[in-house]
Amino acid sequence: MKSVCMLLQNPYDIDVRVRRKAEALVAAGYSVDVLALRASHAEKSYTLNGVNVYTLALGKKRGTLPRYVFEYVAFFVWAFVRVSLLMPRKRYAVIDVNTLPDFLIFAPVLARWMGAKLVLDMHEITPEFYVSKYGIAEGSWIVRVLRLQEKMSFNFADHVITIHEPIQDLLVGRGLSRAKSTVIMNSADESGFAARAQAPRAASAAASPTFVMMYHGTLTRIYGLDLAIEAFALARHEMPGAEFWILGDGPEMGSLERLARARGLASSVNLLGSVPPAEVAAWVEKCDIGVLPMRRDVFLDYAFPNKLSEYIVLGKSVVVARLKAIGHYFSEDALAYFEPNSHADLAKQMVRVSRDAGLRGRLAARAKAEYAPICWGVMKERYLTLMARLAGPAGPALKVSRPAEAAGSPR
Length: 411
Prior knowledge:
Helix content: 40-55%
Low-confidence stretches: 200-207, 398-411
CATH topology of the largest domain: Rossmann fold
Oligomer: single chain
Order of helices and strands: EHEEEHEHEHHEHEHEHEHEHEHEHEHHH
Strand content: 15-25%
CATH architecture of the largest domain: 3-Layer(aba) Sandwich
Number of domains: 2
Number of strands: 14
């Protein structure tokens, strides 16, 4: 049986992209180990759906650039030591390194010397991420250094994965060979997610509003929940009985609650907090539309959120900011686009979609059709084909039990 190792500086249980890849490999017959951060509820090492997980209790106390650097370096050193110790016994055929940081690809350098192929899955584009998060000038020396280490990282890898074609094109423009890169989209596992939508509801609203808009995910400023509340305040008189449900937690929770009260929306903006990942689909099934009010900047213009796929899989129409990566895959007939950073334009789209059930149905149907070529079924086969080419055939597929998912924040 071929063995694969994955490196991930994030808690494994809640990283849906890495979990999809790891569980696809296990189902295809590979032995899979993951080295990740330890979630607050997790053990030092455990097995989940056939995947062996080893963790480091480092925590995520980010906020300042020095803290990011400290956490990156600490995890890098731990991963270097653990992979080096595991490699003589496990003989990994492939090591799948998931960013950030890009330079984590160098942690398994000894394993590469012993024969492992290295795959760099570039979840984010590092220079743009730091420009967005810290307001660093795009021409600054810091950004130049980040682009240099990005280029060194993808040059060192045997193969590079990007999350969509616009990012692939961007990286090719920075020197990445297109021949050594593959696009694996951030697509929802349509079979598993749809099945969970039919599971018993863990909780429900006290009343049944006439129209429910929903956002689920982390509550941070870049995701524009304040814009959505301001838009709802403009639109509410044209949407009688409507409610806006917000699932998730994050640093903006308190300010969003205060904003809703200030706009007289305390009874119609429902901040539900975090729910276990296994229950997200059941909650999404209750809404009429999804709302993704992300702000536009140099980083978010390339965003392709997993939650967009989840709404589409469950047949929900989506009101979304007009961003580059999303617009690359979905037409005006598939999504209700609004101009980014404009709560007035978002309000118009909320009213437009809420008033016309036929429009919602047409949007949802067209989105599902345009999603079909990039769905997880297609992406999974693409990923497994890549891994087989790098590692060789895995052997007979394994049957693994699928216990209930661990609790954590929605995406």
